[in-house]
Q: What sequence folds into this?
């Protein structure tokens, strides 16, 4: 293998390797958004979904869900509880089951808050974290100290004394009186950056560890919605959380996979929080907006062209929300939420998986408006989901003709497809629109350990494919695997990069491959060949190389997709000297191997030091392995 370290063939964009986030598989509510109470504001289609009402002293009509539509359009429902002479937990309780139970950690503080209204004082709320059988594992008391006609907010804390995987939360009422309750909320105190009402820290940390170049959000199909009424509208996801109107999640009734009738989007994780998370982890924000079309896999609902105005305005206003001065209408809203500095948004997607002439017509209107007002914002155009189909080519050609900044390609294909597509981008026009490989994953239908499982074979094929993506970093400027997260007890789609339950998390083999690419992206692609040809599958070998000019380091990625070990001699042609030893990071395993909660790093990298002889390094590549060779230049 010859590496021409002085022959820089492409610049690697800082955005090259990113992540795709969607609220699918309990990704946000029940996942990244750390709220433990399901249906905290009684707005689910079934108003008491997630809640159980019980007690000897609760008669019919004592606990009601009331609707004040006129007074609070976005959050009309609340719970009214009337109790007389309640003395023990057996008298009057409401219990929340959590999303799939609640993860409770010993020694951790839990922050409870509630909005309430009571004409007069008289009730005490006993708060209890409980195990599955209803045994208390932590308690607190909240005595509502305001009365009158207005709503109040009050908080209390509880400490858990036991680890529980699937706990629940109970309020039992003591005393006599009537109280209205809304936004009943419980968060662990250990959220990301300890932000009240924030994100699950272990999940954000997994992303931060990858140092992603960008975060694409909020999806995915939820951008489009099953119908336009249920499309994602970013303006409804900012501001005080009690004013964020929830909608049914598009994955609530997914028919192909597991339905989850309790799957709603509360938008506690809304656009402000997405921008903030991006900033926290050093990633560019890449929001995707609805283009006036609902999900074409479900319905062909479109907004007529002459009514597209509000959709376009949403896109323009988003730039102002992210970047505008605090004196601007939307910049002020950002400042009011605690972030007067701009978020420095640079790009935006128009449409998710949309296609056809209807898409092109709508896209043209968005593009004109955006480029007129914000010429520096790069726009991402969709090219659908069939990477080998005529529709895909047609759309890509149209986008190229229109000089699109980025074309968003999606492919969920077999591992074989990924292996054989390592040369996919070699033939793309380097001077045309850039590619954003916005959603991809190897889907393996016929595995001995189950279909669509994140095993090593899938990750190995993705790694092989990504050598071709990296080699063509002047065409592909951004790439993200999808979907990102899945909850083991509530998912619609598999494979996924990271799996969680209520208290634990693990990265799949795919996660470790993605992380290696991201952490080792370098600054420039350098020429790497064997027999003067790109290394893209011959002898089951795939390779690409980058140089990191900041660290003065050469990074060579080699994938051995065969069941046999092979030793390759890498010869580096460079004006600079090489260090006398190199670090070889490798991931190798059986094709069937998977990670799990019990064995979270079974498939993960190990490092070894190997000798460099002058300008040559002999690298032993294990069977089925992904290898990253780091050679310092002197
Ligand atoms: O990643 C899961 C889904 O796959 C996304 O929501 C959609 O864009 C694609 O079809």
A:
């Amino acid at each position: 293998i010859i590496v021409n370290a002085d022959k820089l063939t492409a610049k690697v964009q800082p955005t090259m390797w990113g992540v795709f986030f969607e609220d699918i598989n309990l990704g946000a509510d029940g996942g990244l958004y750390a709220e433990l109470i399901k249906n905290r504001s009684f707005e689910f289609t079934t108003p008491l979904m997630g809640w159980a009402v019980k007690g000897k002293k609760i008669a019919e009509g004592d606990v009601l869900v009331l609707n004040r539509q006129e007074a609070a359009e976005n959050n009309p429902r609340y719970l009214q509880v009337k109790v007389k002479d309640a003395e023990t937990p057996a008298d009057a309780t409401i219990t929340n089951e959590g999303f799939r139970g609640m993860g409770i950690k010993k020694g951790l503080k839990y922050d409870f808050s509630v909005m309430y209204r009571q004409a007069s004082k008289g009730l005490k709320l006993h708060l209890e974290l409980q195990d599955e059988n209803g045994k208390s594992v932590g308690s607190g008391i909240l005595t509502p100290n305001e009365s009158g006609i207005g709503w109040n907010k009050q908080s209390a804390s509880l400490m858990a004394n036991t680890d529980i995987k699937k706990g629940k939360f109970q309020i039992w009422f003591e005393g006599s009186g009537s109280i209205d309750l809304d936004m009943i909320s419980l968060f662990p105190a250990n959220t990301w950056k300890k932000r009240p009402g924030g994100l699950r820290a272990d999940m954000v940390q997994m992303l931060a560890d990858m140092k992603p170049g960008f975060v694409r959000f909020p999806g995915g199909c939820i951008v489009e919605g099953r119908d336009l009424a249920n499309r994602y509208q970013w303006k409804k996801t900012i501001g005080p959380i009690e004013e964020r109107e929830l909608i049914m999640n598009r994955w609530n009734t997914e028919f192909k996979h597991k339905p989850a009738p309790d799957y709603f989007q509360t938008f506690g994780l809304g656009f402000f929080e997405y921008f903030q998370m991006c900033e926290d982890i050093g990633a560019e924000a890449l929001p995707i907006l609805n283009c006036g079309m609902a999900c074409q896999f479900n319905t062909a609902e479109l907004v007529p062209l002459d009514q597209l105005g509000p959709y376009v305005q949403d896109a323009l206003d988003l730039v102002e929300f992210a970047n505008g001065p605090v004196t601007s209408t939307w910049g002020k809203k950002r400042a009011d939420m605690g972030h007067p500095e701009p978020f420095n948004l640079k790009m935006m997607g128009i449409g998710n998986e949309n296609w056809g002439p209807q898409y092109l017509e709508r896209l043209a209107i968005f593009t004109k408006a955006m480029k007129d007002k914000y010429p520096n914002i790069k726009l991402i155009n969709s090219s659908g989901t069939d990477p080998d189909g005529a529709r895909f080519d047609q759309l890509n050609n149209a986008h190229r003709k229109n000089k699109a900044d980025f074309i968003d390609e999606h492919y969920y294909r077999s591992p074989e497809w990924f292996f054989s597509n390592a040369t996919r981008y070699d033939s793309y026009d380097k001077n045309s629109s850039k590619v954003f490989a916005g959603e991809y994953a190897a889907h393996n239908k016929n595995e001995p350990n189950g279909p669509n499982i994140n095993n090593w074979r899938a990750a190995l094929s993705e790694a092989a494919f990504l050598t071709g993506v990296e080699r063509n970093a002047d065409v592909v400027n951004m790439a993200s695997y999808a979907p990102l997260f899945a909850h083991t007890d509530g998912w619609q789609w598999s494979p996924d990069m990271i799996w969680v339950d209520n208290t634990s998390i693990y990265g799949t083999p795919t996660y470790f491959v993605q992380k290696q690419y991201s952490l080792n992206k370098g600054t420039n692609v350098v020429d790497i060949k064997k027999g003067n040809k790109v290394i893209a599958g011959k002898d089951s070998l795939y390779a690409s190389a980058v140089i990191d000019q900041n660290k003065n380091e050469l990074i060579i990625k080699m994938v051995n997709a065969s069941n046999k070990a092979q030793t390759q001699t890498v010869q580096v042609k460079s004006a600079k000297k090489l260090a006398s030893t190199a670090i070889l990071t490798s991931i190798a395993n059986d094709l069937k191997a998977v990670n799990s909660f019990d064995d979270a790093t079974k498939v993960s990298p190990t490092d070894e030091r190997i000798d460099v002889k002058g300008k040559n390094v002999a690298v032993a590549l294990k069977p089925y392995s992904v290898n990253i060779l780091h050679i310092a230049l002197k």
Remarks:
- The mean pLDDT is 96.
- DSSP finds ten helices and 32 strands in the chain.
- The pocket of alpha-L-arabinofuranose is lined by residues 22, 24, 219-221, 352-353, 385, 439, 482-483, 493 (CB under 6 Å).
